[in-house]
Amino acid sequence: MPTGVVLAPDPQAENLVDAAIAEAKRAFAAGVRQIWLGQRLDADSLALSALIGAAVPGLGVGTYAVPINPRHPLIIASLAQTAQAAAHGNFSLGLALGGHELERQAFGISAANTLQRLREHLVVLRSVLDSGAVEHHGDEITAAPNLPVHVPGGTPIPIYVAAMGPKALRVAGELADGTLPNLAGPRTIAEFIKPTIDKAAADSGRPTPRIIAAVPVLVSGDIGAAREVAAERLSFYASILSYQKVIAREGLESVVDLAAIGSAEQVTERLHAYLAAGATDVVVNPLRTEEADLEALWAVARSIDAT
Question: Cross-referenced PANTHER family, in alphabetical order (predicted)?
């Protein structure tokens, strides 16, 4: 898989969909061959993947990542297959466990048994995508439609899970095609993520999983100013336990130290450290989205693919 870039359309644009497609076209023209779309509560990343995939033939598109709550896996399967058909085989589905507090505030739900729900969500998706049918009655999810669930042109679809904890990584190794660790440093990948998910996949008779590591990036000659940007953009993660564990495991002082900041050569060297640690792919996530910043970031992605 080519080096990925997180698409960052202008939220102030007159039309966000038009802006996203335009940015995807510019990135593709600049040599980027894989883009990823985050999921919040505004634009839907699955729908946007379909639109971009149809508008920019040959560009890989993926979600990084869609929370499994509150959507039922049959809905995800329907949307994902539609996106794959639109992208003509260039779509990847990234899923996330989601955040308890955000879900409580936004939807009024407090999901229990998150790992069991992830497992059943993946079981249903695997059945739909692998066989075109499903019959599942679980503790968390029921999926027994008396209707077609297959979308012609919509399969196969690689499934990745944004997992960093040991239990979630084992579920991903057993049932998904890999993991999407965000802000997991090279030591965390080498010593924890890779051995955990590889063993789970091997024990289940599945191929070696992909580890698609997302790294916040800012190409800049002003390191101090760049770190200030990173501190502002990444402050949210500093309060989350899983990221606190990563910071501790990496032996770092701050979440800012997980960002790749500096000249193009320094950033490229930092990203190569992830590949050397066992990541199969890297995704560059812009910390700043001015045109010059994006062009520098696209150049870094090209340089990694060229080596």
Answer: CONSERVED HYPOTHETICAL ALANINE AND PROLINE-RICH PROTEIN, PTHR43244
